Amino acid sequence: MEIKIGIVEDDPRTLSRFVSTIQSRANWSIAFACGKWHEARHAISQDSINVLLLDLGLPDGDGIDLIPWTLAHYPSCQVLIISVFGDEDNVIRCVEAGASGYLLKGQGDDELAEHLEDLMDGGSPMSPQIARRVLTQLRDYTTPNRFGNTTFEQKSFVSGSLLTSKELLVLKDLTIGYTYGEVAELRQMSLNTVRHHVKSIYSKLYVNSRTQAINTATRMGILDLK
């Protein structure tokens, strides 16, 4: 299966390196490569893509605004942020907008390829510094109870994180140990649909792995493992 990747990066050298990395891999192709917000918006509306590599600091607009624009056109598209901006505000805004992963610039070519493979396999690659910020944000929404355990406060974060019925089914299947392909067959979904549900689950729970999703959903009372 061919994976079509769009790239939005305003630094010419970095853009060229991303293009070379993608072109060196079998079954990966460049749908478009541009460095401006308006060029990207037009390209996204014209070219079907499976993955979007997105820089945030564009000269003519906020890269974050391209996330919902992309997902509106291609709901199963995986958006991977690669940026110099690692502050909490940008990270959380990107996750809430629907980004599947967030990397700080400085990745080697082999590392980038590995992160892309992880992304297309349903993972949510994050630089360690970014993952720490996400976990810190998650802890900010918790409070210890009198038994020393962690109880989630009833805030908009929690109510907004509740999974849909299909997402819950997918998560339960993953808890049992099914692969994405087995979940797709069991639930009569396409593999891309399963990946889209997993991406949504990770985004809502602020996690980047199956184990984290299961543990977090269980602590929040969303998932009952009994």
Automatic annotation (TrEMBL):
Pfam families membership: GerE, Response_reg
Coiled coil: none
SMART domains to which the protein is assigned, alphabetical: HTH_LUXR (SM00421), REC (SM00448)
Keyword Transcription regulation assigned: yes
Record protein name field: Response regulator
Record bears the keyword Phosphoprotein: yes
Protein's organism: Undibacterium danionis
Superkingdom of this protein's organism: Bacteria
UniProt cross-references to PANTHER family, sorted A to Z: NITRATE_NITRITE RESPONSE REGULATOR PROTEIN NARP (PTHR43214:SF41), TWO-COMPONENT RESPONSE REGULATOR (PTHR43214)
PTM annotation (4-aspartylphosphate): residues: 55
SUPFAM superfamilies: C-terminal effector domain of the bipartite response regulators (SSF46894), CheY-like (SSF52172)
